[in-house]
Write a structure and sequence with these properties.
This protein has 26 helices and ten strands. By secondary structure, the chain is mainly α. The strands form three sheets. It has a six-stranded mixed β-sheet. β5 and β6 form a beta hairpin.
Length: about 700
């Protein structure tokens, strides 16, 4: 009996294991299965959820070595070589030791490989994000907080080891909080929040941040030690202090900087000119930072993960949120650009989660915040990269460098690293060319670009970003408050109604005023809408007497209701335009609400007043082109009543015009059945809400 029980247990365990194996194979390789009969959660839904959260499972099993391996290998090596000098140089912007820039180029890349949806962007250090982190670390850990006594001459100094350790702790804590913000926003499907950062705003902000980067690196180029400033106008004070210290310039540092700049710019231009002929770009940045004077190779270990200092979160919460939004904006803009170019979809919400997980995991390993880099992403794409396997290969190169050559990069000439930063800002400073382009295309966007640049430079990165977003939203409000109001006329021979001031060929329908606003009417512009309508009605209400419902063909069905009558009325009106009488023969106002996407309570009240006021003087008012959601909102708000029936709604302006030109004795009853109903029938007669 015991043997039988033991055999039965083994058999059951074997069945469970084999069943689980078969299920996992089917789950990841087969088309969607039928849902479980005992559960509302189906296998296809579960599969979509898992593959959505772990995109690597959707493309890695189908990875083609023949098609992708060589391109990813070449691309990974090229990007990895770029990671090394850029990581160390941008670490200076974050005010942490250079080796932590290498850590930042390793851990987050692996996390994004698993959770990211873009195949071509290169995650890692970036100048704008680095300078934002650096502003936080220098603000909370200034040199004055770490005094030390020089044992040699008894003078005071700075305890660099303690200062750098605390700054790394601040950067890591800020990065973890930034990642948590991004994960939370991604899980709440808040990927659309980046839409509030328009392209002119983002480009202006990046250009302004580039000026911060340059100002922060000038001290290394000239070999001077200016004072640290924070708050608004800090960049102005910094430049003044640098100019004051120019007589104390270190000639050696300046010469090294100039030589490095010449070499870097020359070789980078050669890389650009011979891009198609070179198998991979010349790694000039790595060459100029190679410590040739060091020959002994040392081995260091990667630092173990450590929890962030939660007590710092209260001091960095605003900066962390700003880094989260700016980093995501840069990341998704690059990702969607490459996605459109190569024909694949980039999930905005999953990108937010992937970037958040990269920052959160990296923060535990003492990394600082990351995002995608334009220069590295372009190299990854142009050298043949097809998937994020290239990112893994680049991280392997960084890992080997950290393990085998890590101590060689602990002490590097900061002047050379500053020059590397300057050269890599070329793309950002080329964005100044946006100014003439925006001047020709859209002056409001140009104003947003310039205001963002000025706010970022003068008010610092955090306050400047908030002020720029506020100004950008104000431009939207002002543009919606000052829309263009127009009277529409009919294009002869068509059912099109266009602005009479813009198009000379259109003809107004005598006795009918068709009024349209270029934007949605809501509480900020409702009164302006009413005033503009009154002005248009007053200026256009004088018409030719008897031009409507006159003529020998009044009893003719086509003549009274069809295009012939509209054409006849329009031509009669145009012929007599120079001799308009003083009789007010305007009998209909048609409000074209095709541009309205919603209505609020103020809009409903304004529309009720329009119907009431014009009805008192014998003018009919109709609504045309309303979207279904607008009609529903009007109905819910109690707009329709006995005095405003639903028969005042029409699907198009043309339907409303045809209805308004019918004989007046049909005003309260339907036209004859022999009439083509599609020419006059109001919207509500065929659509029940």
């Amino acid at each position: 009996m015991r043997l039988y029980t033991h055999w039965l247990r083994i058999k059951l365990i074997s069945l469970v294991i084999n069943g689980f194996k078969k299920y996992m194979i089917l789950f990841f390789t087969s088309p969607p299965l039928q849902p479980f009969p005992w559960s509302r959660c189906s296998v296809p839904k579960l599969k979509r959820s898992v593959l959505g959260f772990l995109p690597v499972l959707s493309w890695l099993p189908r990875y083609s070595l023949r098609d992708n391996a060589l391109g990813d290998l070449t691309s990974g090596i090229s990007v990895g070589i770029m990671h090394l000098p850029q990581g160390m140089a941008y670490a200076l912007l974050a005010s942490v030791p250079p080796v932590f820039g290498l850590y930042t180029s390793f851990y987050p890349v692996l996390v994004y490989f698993i959770f990211g949806t873009s195949r071509h962007i290169s995650i890692g250090t970036f100048a704008v994000i680095s300078i934002m982190i650096g502003s936080v670390t220098e603000k909370l850990a200034p040199d004055s907080n770490f005094p030390s006594l020089n044992e040699t001459n008894g003078t005071g100094g700075v305890d660099l080891a303690a200062r750098d350790a605390y700054r790394v702790q601040i950067a890591a804590s800020t990065t973890v909080l930034c990642g948590l913000f991004q994960i939370l926003l991604g899980m709440m499907r808040f990927g659309f929040v980046v839409t509030y950062l328009s392209e002119p705003l983002v480009r202006g902000y990046m250009t302004g941040a580039a000026t911060h980067v340059v100002a922060s690196q000038l001290k290394y180029v000239f070999g001077i030690d200016p004072a640290r400033f924070s708050g608004p106008l800090s960049q102005v004070y910094l430049l003044i202090d640098i100019c004051r210290l120019l007589p104390e310039t270190n000639i050696g540092a300046l010469v090294v900087s100039l030589v490095a700049l010449v070499v870097l710019i020359t070789v980078k231009e050669l890389n650009t000119c011979y891009e198609k002929k070179l198998p991979m770009p010349i790694p000039i940045e790595l060459i100029v930072v190679s410590p040739q004077h060091l020959t002994m190779i040392s081995v260091i270990l990667l630092k173990p993960p450590s929890p962030p200092d939660i007590s710092l979160w209260g001091s960095v919460v605003g900066d962390a949120f700003a880094v989260a939004i700016v980093g995501y904006a840069i990341n998704i803009s690059l990702g969607k650009t490459f996605g459109l170019k190569h024909g694949y979809k980039v999930d905005s919400n999953q990108e937010l989660v992937a970037l958040g997980l990269s920052n959160t995991a990296g923060g535990f390993f003492q990394c600082y915040a990351v995002t995608s880099s334009l220069s590295r992403s372009l190299i990854q794409e142009s050298t043949g990269g097809k998937t994020q396997v290239a990112g893994v290969i680049s991280s392997v190169i960084v890992l080997v460098t950290v393990l085998q050559l890590g101590t060689l990069f602990e002490e590097l000439p900061k002047a050379v690293l500053a020059c590397i930063v300057f050269v890599n800002l070329k793309g950002m400073f080329r964005q100044f060319l946006d100014i003439p382009a925006l001047w020709k295309s859209n002056k409001v966007d140009l104003m947003v670009w310039l205001v963002t640049l000025v706010c970022t430079v003068l008010l610092n990165l955090d306050i400047g970003l908030a002020a720029s977003i506020a100004f950008s939203l104000l431009t939207v409000i002002f543009r919606s408050q000052l829309p263009r109001y127009s009277i529409l006329g009919r294009v002869p021979g068509t059912e099109l109604y266009l602005d009479t001031d813009t198009y000379e060929e259109v003809k107004e329908i005598p006795g009918v005023i068709i009024f349209r606003s270029s934007t949605t009417m809501y509480y900020t512009n409702a009164e302006l809408y009413l005033d503009a309508l009154l002005e248009k009605v007053v200026s256009g209400c004088v018409c030719v007497s008897g031009c409507v419902c006159t003529g020998s063909d009044q009893d003719s069905e086509i003549g009274s209701y069809g295009d012939n009558h509209i054409t006849q009325a329009a031509s009669t009106g145009s012929e007599s335009e120079s001799g308009k009488s003083a009789d007010n023969s305007t009998h209909t106002i048609i409000l074209d609400l095709s541009t309205a996407s919603f209505v609020d309570t103020v809009t409903v009240k304004i529309l009720k007043n329009i119907f009431r006021d014009y009805k008192e003087i014998g003018i009919d008012v109709y609504l045309a082109g309303c979207q279904v959601c607008v009609v529903e909102q009007l109905s819910i708000a109690g707009f329709f009543c006995e005095s405003i029936p639903k028969s005042c709604l029409f699907a198009t302006v043309h339907d409303a015009v045809l209805h308004s030109l019918r004989p007046r004795h049909y005003a309260s009853s339907p036209p004859p059945v022999t009439m083509p109903s599609t020419q006059w029938l109001p919207l509500v007669s065929s659509l029940s809400l």
